[in-house]
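User: quick one, sequence for these tokens?
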């Protein structure tokens, strides 16, 4: 066999003279030092990539595998649940569990970064049992925005209980839902960042909320969700039920007349600042997923007021699906009574949670 075509045909034999650290030697590095090296590598390697390649960060996220990298030997080992895959930069194969040679696309080491070809990534997904239909798209961040806060209570209703007036304020209801939701999402998605525009009774300005959303950095194939949570108010005390607002297609900045705006007047100041086109379709899908979960959780007794189209707040980030939820009317006595029950808030939270979950599955699996 003419090995000149395969200059690196024996890349993984340990202890070949002058080849740098073998894996067994690598393992001897102190854990803390190794941790540091790995962290440094991850930081180095996560950066803009070629169109059809996959970042190391994404591979680690998706496979849940650990990487040990031998910088001198240019070799790496992914491991998880007893499976190991060893590769060397430049080689068109990987070695599974020290025995099986897997032909695959190459891994390139370029200016201190590892770049995985789509084929190499697919091989790793197969080995670690990641769904084949995964699109490579990833929802990176979920930003929850509990409406109002602090001096701005939002919709409010006063209850008399034993002669004492007790207020039911929108700002408290939506904060409670948002905190519970953030908690559940953090447990479900330890690798995504779950953020809140406020985690307590304070009032970030609308501009501050929007800036938070627009400042989130997204790499290629990454997306985010912005979910604003409100409770409704109406002069008609019979108005009842939940609704979901999204941004209409072809929205362009235009001035909204406060006197003709029929929705939650508190969101008027953010109208005209939302810029979103690309994700209208995604926002509609997210809205529908949340609505059907509301219906499922809250039952036929609570009116589904449906999906509504309005141009409210701003998101300049094009890869963001955004919706505004009105979970019920504080001004309707029946609904206000329900909104005072922790069990009802738990159901609302669960509905939103399940809607988000469905959306994430859809977003990360679909091909584009
Ligand atoms: Zn509101």
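Assistant:
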């Amino acid at each position: 066999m003419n090995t000149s075509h395969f200059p690196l045909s024996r890349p993984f034999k340990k202890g070949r003279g002058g080849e740098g650290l073998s894996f067994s030697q690598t393992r001897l590095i102190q854990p803390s030092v190794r941790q540091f090296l790995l962290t440094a590598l991850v930081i180095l390697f996560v950066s803009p990539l070629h169109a059809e390649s996959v970042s190391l960060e994404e591979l680690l996220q998706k496979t849940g595998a650990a990487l040990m990298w031998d910088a001198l030997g240019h070799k790496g080992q992914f491991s998880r649940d007893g499976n190991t895959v060893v590769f060397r930069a430049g080689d068109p194969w990987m070695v599974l569990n020290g025995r099986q040679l897997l032909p695959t696309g190459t891994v390139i080491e370029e200016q201190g970064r590892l770049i995985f070809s789509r084929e190499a990534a697919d091989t790793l997904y197969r080995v670690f049992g990641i769904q084949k239909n995964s699109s490579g798209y990833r929802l990176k961040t979920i930003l929850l925005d509990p409406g109002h806060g602090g001096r701005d209570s939002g919709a409010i209703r006063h209850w008399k209980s034993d002669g004492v007036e007790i207020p039911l304020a929108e700002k408290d209801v939506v904060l409670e839902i948002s905190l519970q939701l953030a908690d559940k999402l953090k447990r479900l998605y330890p690798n995504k960042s779950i953020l809140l525009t406020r985690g307590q009774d304070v009032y970030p300005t609308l501009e501050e909320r929007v800036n938070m959303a627009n400042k989130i950095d997204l790499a290629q194939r990454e997306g985010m969700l912005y979910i604003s949570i409100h409770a409704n108010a109406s002069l008609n005390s019979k108005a009842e039920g939940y609704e979901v607002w999204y941004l209409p297609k072809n929205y362009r900045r235009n001035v909204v007349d406060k006197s003709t705006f029929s929705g939650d007047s508190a969101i008027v100041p953010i109208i005209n600042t939302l810029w979103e086109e690309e994700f209208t379709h995604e926002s509609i899908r997210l809205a529908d997923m949340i609505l059907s979960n509301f219906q499922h959780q809250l039952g036929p007794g609570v009116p589904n007021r449906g999906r509504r189209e309005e141009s409210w707040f701003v998101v300049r980030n094009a890869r963001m699906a955004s919706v505004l939820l009105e979970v019920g009317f504080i001004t309707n006595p029946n609904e206000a009574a329900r909104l005072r029950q922790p069990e009802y808030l738990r159901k609302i939270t669960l509905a939103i949670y399940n809607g988000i979950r469905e959306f994430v599955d859809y977003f990360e699996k679909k091909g584009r």
